[in-house]
Amino acid sequence: MKSGVPSPSAFSDLASRVVATLEQYRQDSQKGNEKVLRNTAAGPLAHMLDLEKWIRRGGLDHTNLEDFLTPYLDASQHVHNPAFIGHQVAVPHRGAIMGDLIHGVTNNAMAVYEMGPSATVVERVIINWMLEKAGWFSSDQLSDFSAHPGNGAGVLTHGGSLANLTAVLAARAAAFPHAWQDGTPDNLAIIAPAATHYSIARAAAIAGMGQNAIYPAPVNALDQLRAGQLGNLYRRACDDGKTVFMVSLNACATATGLYDPIDEVADFCAAHNLWLHVDGAHGASALLSDKHRHHLNGVSRADSLTWDAHKMLRTSALCAAILFKDPAALGHAFSQEGSYIFYEENHPDLDVGRTTIECTKAALGAKLFMVLAIGPWAGL
Ligand SMILES: Cc1ncc(COP(=O)(O)O)c(C=O)c1O
Questions:
Q1: Peptide bond preceding 318: is omega within 30 degrees of 0, i.e. cis?
Q2: Residue 160 Cα, ligand 1 centroid: separation in angstroms?
C-alpha cells in the first residue's frame, strides 16, 4: 500500500474526477448510448474491476480512478437511460445526489442531537412536511417541534421495510402495552391482502408473532381489498382464537400499482378498535398530486403511514418515513416507559436514536430537503 500524507488537493482532485466521470456517464445514459444493463456475471465482474488488487495494494487516486470507475459504471444498471423501468428505483434528482455528498463529507450520525444538529433539524422539518400532507400536522410553522395538538410524529428510516416494522411494533404496543417488556402474546393476527409487500410478514415474524399471524384479506379480481367482506374474516380469526390488532393496506400494491380503499377500511377499524396501517411506500407520493391524491382518501383516519421518498420523490436510496397520527405511538413502538418520559415533558426530544431501530443514522432528510428546495420537478 502507498503510505504517507495525502496532498492538500487529494480530496478536490479526486472529487473533480469523480464528478466529471459521473456527469459523462449520466449524459451518455440519458442519450440511451449505453444498455440499461449488461448482465455481467459476478465472478468475471469482480475480476474486471480488479477489486482484489485495489483492496490489497491501495493506490487509487485521481490519476487512475478511471481504471476502476469506468468498468464499474459500465456494469451498473443505468437508471438514467430513458428505457429504464426497473425495480421501483428513482432516477435521482440532483438535489438528492448533493444531499448524499453533503452527508458523506459532514458524516453527522444522528443517534443523539449533538451528533448531527443540522441533520436532525432538517429531518424533523421534513417529517412535519410529510405529516402535513397526511393531515397530521396543524402548526403554522414546519419548524414547530413542540407537542402541538393535532401534530403527529415520525422518523426517517433506511427503507420502507424498517418503516413497516416500526408500524407493527407501534400497533403491537397500542394493543399490548407490556409487549416490549413481557414479549408478544402468541395469538395475534394482522389482516392484510395477499398483495401486501413481504416486509409486513417479515415484521410480524421479527416481532415474534410468526408470519402465519397474517390473515389474507378478501380481495377482488385485481387483488384490492374488499372492505365489505372484512367482517367475515374477522369473525373467522376470532373463532380461531386469534386477537386481531391491526389491518395493513396497500397504497399502492407493489406489483399492480393499485390502491386499497382506505376510507372504507377505516370505518371497519374504528368499529373494531383496530390499528390501521397504510403502506404507502410506493404510492403515498400521490398525496402531492391534485389529480391523484384521491387514491389516498381517508389516510388521515389511519394510525400509521409508510412513505418512501426514494421511490416516487426522486431521492437516491434510501429515504423512507414512518408517520403516526398519535405522536406518542412512535415512542411506544420502542418502549412504553421511555415514551412516557419523552411525551409527558413539554419539550420535544430531538435524540432521533430513541425512536428508531437504528442507532447511528445517515442524514436522510438532507436528500429530500434538497429535492424540495431546488424544486422537485426541475430536470436533473
Ligand atoms: C408497498 C411496498 N412496501 C414496502 C416496500 C419496502 O420498501 P424498501 O424497499 O424501501 O425497504 C416496498 C418496496 O418495494 C413496497 O413496494
A1: yes
A2: 5
